[in-house]
Write a structure and sequence with these properties.
Elements lengths: L10 H8 L3 H9 L6 H14 L15 E6 L5 H16 L3 E6 L4 H13 L4 E5 L6 H8 L4 E4 L9 E5 L1 H14 L5 E5 L5 H16 L9 E3 L7 H14 L7 E4 L2 H13 L9 E6 L12 E4 L2 H17 L7 E4 L2 E3 L7
């Protein structure tokens, strides 16, 4: 007797049965948003009646259910955690994920994009990157759905998900000003990406709003800090300290890894953190809580960034003609021992 094969129940089936969006079903399954009790109950009843079980191990048809995520550096925990969230969310919807860690190799990125489009990839998420790849992104968006993570394009309407970089920097400067700090320096990679540019604008706006002067000798914007951030920041800032330049009260860094490198250079030159100078990071990767002293930082919600990227891509795949959206995820300030607050 031939065995009858049953069609696997998907989130789309549950959403249709419950009369809600696929994104709502995902939020109920993963508890990633505040959903009304009535809606939660309706979704769970649909799941039970259809026999839907999240995270099933059914084989994926990679040719038809594949998305690709492009990141600049898989060794950076910020990207790794965000990509893990994309993996987890994609798995709930029976999508396979291919991760391409490009390290700003744009010719290789172009080849990957072309090859994946020919292989019937369903969509792309470009997480981070550089301004040099905007042409590749726009070309890809003409062929498949595209979402940008931790960045946006100023010149084109492409779906994007990012942190409130400008506002959280303003809040950080205001917090430091209330604590009595007046000399606040800034350490960043270059400003060609929207996220780093917005952080710098937030820093400038916050300084102006609190009546604090910006001393350009304490504003460091270095392209070599894009990759190998901790090592590059250590080498760069150690050289700064060797020149015997006067330092501010606080160094506000746009990455935890940059902050770790800066803090290590300061210690190597005999400075005490935070007694002689305070250091602040950005991201809240796991090592930030275990540096000596523990690093004060701005915490990005990496899980929410990843989940929102996939759900935005799912929305775009389901509704190709919909209006583009810009999703902003709020960051928070985490105070630890590297600054006296």
């Amino acid at each position: 007797m031939e065995k009858i094969r049953r069609k696997k129940v998907t989130m789309e089936d549950v959403a249709k049965n419950a009369g809600v969006s696929v994104t709502t079903v995902s939020h109920v399954v993963n508890q990633t948003a505040s959903i009304s009790e009535e809606t939660v109950l309706r979704v769970r009843e649909a799941m039970a009646s259809l026999g839907y079980v999240p995270r099933t191990s059914a084989a994926l048809n990679c040719g038809q259910r594949l998305i690709a995520v492009f990141i600049p550096d898989i060794s950076n925990e910020f990207y790794a955690q965000s990509v893990q969230a994309i993996f987890d969310e994609a798995w709930q919807h029976d999508y396979a994920v291919m991760v391409c860690s490009m390290r700003h190799h744009h010719q290789a990125e172009t080849r990957y994009i072309r090859s994946l489009i020919q292989s019937s990839v369903r969509g792309f998420i470009f997480f981070g990157g550089s301004a040099d790849d905007e042409k590749q992104i726009l070309d890809a968006a003409k062929r498949v759905p595209v979402v940008l993570g931790d960045r946006r394009l100023r010149s084109s309407a492409v779906d994007s998900v990012g942190t409130d970089n400008f506002e959280v920097m303003r809040r950080m400067i205001a917090r430091l000003a209330r604590a009595g700090y007046t000399k606040i320096g800034y350490v960043s990679e270059d400003l060609i990406m929207s996220n780093t540019y917005d952080r710098y604008l937030g820093y400038k706006q916050g300084m102006e709003e609190n009546g604090l002067p910006i001393d350009e000798q304490w504003v460091f914007r270095r392209p070599e800090l894009r990759l190998n951030k901790a090592e590059s920041a250590y080498s760069f800032f150690y050289a700064v300290l060797e020149r015997g330049e006067k330092l501010p009260q606080i160094l506000l860094c746009t990455s935890d890894l940059i902050a770790v490198g800066v803090m290590s250079a300061l210690k190597a030159r005999g400075y005490r953190v935070p007694l002689d100078i305070g250091v602040i990071g950005f991201d809240n990767i796991s090592i930030a809580a275990f540096t000596e002293p523990p690093l004060t930082t701005i915490a990005q919600d990496m899980k929410q960034l990843g989940c929102s990227c996939f759900n935005a891509l799912l929305d775009r795949m389901n509704e190709p003609g919909r209006t583009s959206q810009e999703i902003v995820v709020r960051a928070k300030i985490v105070v630890r021992g590297s600054v006296r607050l």
